[in-house]
Every structure is written in structure tokens, then in C-alpha cells.
Amino acid sequence: MEHSQATNGSTHSRRVLVTGGGGFLGKAIVQKLIERGDRVTSFSRSSYTDLEGMHVAQICGDLNDRKTVSDACRHKDLVFHVAAKAGVWGPFQEYYQTNVIGTQNIIAACQEHNVSYLVHTSSPSVIYNGTGSMQGVNASAPYPSTFQTAYQQTKARAEQMVVAAAGGSLKTIILRPHLIWGPGDNHLIPRILARAKKIMIVGDGKNLADTIYIENAADAHLQAGDALQIKHDLSGNIYFISQGEPVYLWEMINNILKAGNKPPVTKSISRQTAFVIGALLEFIYKVLRLKTEPKMTRFLAHELSAAQWFDISAAKRDFGFNPKISTKEGLKKLKEWLEENPYEAD
Asked: What are the sequence ranges of the domains in the chain?
């Protein structure tokens, strides 16, 4: 067995599975695990050359394939379940298969093969009821009675299953990062840059929001996994993680546009108008059974205009989370990365 000095002081090289290891957050977690000497396997739907270069073992498969998931979890000490189907649009069943059945399969495989620890990546959107703002919210906030999107509903169900699984030999922790960004982002930043000339401020532009820089998000996952091995009483807990300093959402969007050499957003639309447009587009897309995502939805109208920032004191207290990269420093790194990897519009 290989041995190396890990950041938590242990000299034991752990066997770790990362689902979605080729994705934005998954790859950042994989990199940090490799750097400290853990033996890492990635589980994704396809193979990634970046991971090959890091000498990461790769298993290709679907989360709703129970046997493949079971095989992936065999002989593992720790699992980071990062993979999920994200988005605000699409058939419920697709979200259900990946986010609910997939998580169910991960839990079952961990229990079958005596995996000791599971860190599950979730989202603050699971507690958003679609009205008003979330300011300084902590993990005691309840799930809403109804959900606006299949993503919210299925991720909430996945959380409940992970919490329920925490009572036995499997120890679990759930993390809720909000708006992960940084170099290598293949989701949020490309969408902002692609729509640079079409974006309009929704509401008064003064809504505060939490974000988290990619490296800080990855650090939080490793710290949570390490703490779980020492403090078993953390099992079943849910934590918000962020930069710890809410920013004006639209100022942040303009800073991202600036980093990509795009003009700032100046035009605006009222929240009510955006909501009506979103409802209308949802109706049209459903009637015509369009598979592409509408440019606006009711959920998106709220997301872009409401305050959304969270209490991360529990993460600081329980596993020492402290964002190392400031938002200012992160934006500088993002600008440097975009200069070397310019975004090309389709």
C-alpha cells in the first residue's frame, strides 16, 4: 500500500471515489486529493484526458446503473458524491434518475462495501420556496411545501436519503455550495459570457448573493471529509459553504464580464415583468414540447432578483472551513485564465 503525508496529518493513503470527477467541482476535488497522496477513482459518464494526465483511475458509467456504481464503490474508504443533473428545465424523470436513483445507488453501494464516509454535494436551492429572499439562512431552514424545478425537488430528496443513511456504519455530510465559479468553469461563466449583450438586470440590482470560488469549494469538501473521520457526531449534518462575504449579484456578474473583456450589463427589467415572461415561456415550451431551456423561467426571475446569502458559521466551527481565496483574488485568477483560454461564442 502506498503511503504519503496528507494535509490532515495522516500518513495513510486513502482510497477515494469522486463521482463527476471530470466536472468543474469534481476535478478540483480530484486535484487536491491527488496532491495530498490519496488514491483517486473518478466515476463519470465519459472519460477525461485531464484525469488521465493526473493518473486518476476512471470508471465510465451511469449513476442509475446500480451494478456499475456498486463496482465503483468497492474497496473505497471515502466517496465524494458530486455528480448531478443540474439546470432549471427538462423532464422530471431525467432529474429523478440521476439525482434520486443515482444517490440511492451510491448509498446502497457504500453500505454494501462498508465504505465509511460519504460527502454529498447539494445546493441551497433545495430550501428556496420561490418567493422572497434568503438572508443569513442556516441549515435549520425547512424544505418548501412545493418546488419550482425538478432539480430542487430531486436534490432535496437526495439530501433526505443521505441524512437518513447517516445512522449506521456509513457516516455522511452534506454541503450546499452556492454559485461556484473560477478558472475552468464550464457552466456559469460561459453562459454569462455567451449572453453578454442580451443580459438584463432583473429587479433593482441590489440583491446580495453568496458565491464560492472553485478552490474554496474543493477545500471545503476535503475538510468535511477529514472532519467526518474524527468527529462522527457530525454525521448527517448539512452545511452551507460560500466566500463568507455576500456580494451584489449584478456587480459580480459585471465583474465576470469584465474579466472576459465584455461590456457591463446596464439595461434592466422589473422582477414582475421577468416573472410574467418566464411563466409565458414555460407555458409555450411545455405546449410545444421544446427541449431547449427557456431564456427566462419563473425560478430564474426570482434567482436573479432575490437576496440569497447563507450562514456558514457551522462549517467554520465544525470542520474549520475558511475561504483561502478572496473574491478579489479569485476574479484576478479568472481574468488571467480567460486571457489564456478566451471564450469563443458558438
From this structure: 15-184+209-246+308-324
Cell 418548501 -> residue: 144
Residue 145: exposed, middle, or buried by beta-carbon count in 10 A (0-12, 13-18, 19+)?
A: exposed
Cell numbers linked to 207: 440583491
CA distance 297 to 281: 7
**Phi–psi pair at 129, nearest 5 degrees:** -95, 5
pLDDT, tens digit, 9 for 90 and up, residues 81-101: 999 999 888 889 999 999 999
**CA distance linking residue 117 with residue 277, whole number of Å:** 45
Question: For residue range 157-196, what is the model confidence (pLDDT) as tens digits?
Answer: 999 999 999 988 999 999 999 999 999 998 889 989 998 8
Q: Which helix (H) or strand (E) holds 58?
A: strand 57-60
Annotated catalytic residue within 151, 239, 285, 343: 151
Q: How many angstroms separate the CA atoms of 149 and 298, rounded?
A: 10
Query: Taking the model in full, what pTM does it have?
Result: 0.92
Catalytic (active site) residue 151? yes
3-state secondary structure of 268: strand
Q: How many residues does the chain have?
A: 346
Superfamily of domain 15-184+209-246+308-324: NAD(P)-binding Rossmann-like Domain (3.40.50.720)
Nine cell digits for residue 300: 430564474
Q: Is the pLDDT of residue 129 over 60?
A: yes
CA distances (Å), 35 to each of 28, 29, 40, 62, 113, in order? 11, 10, 11, 27, 26
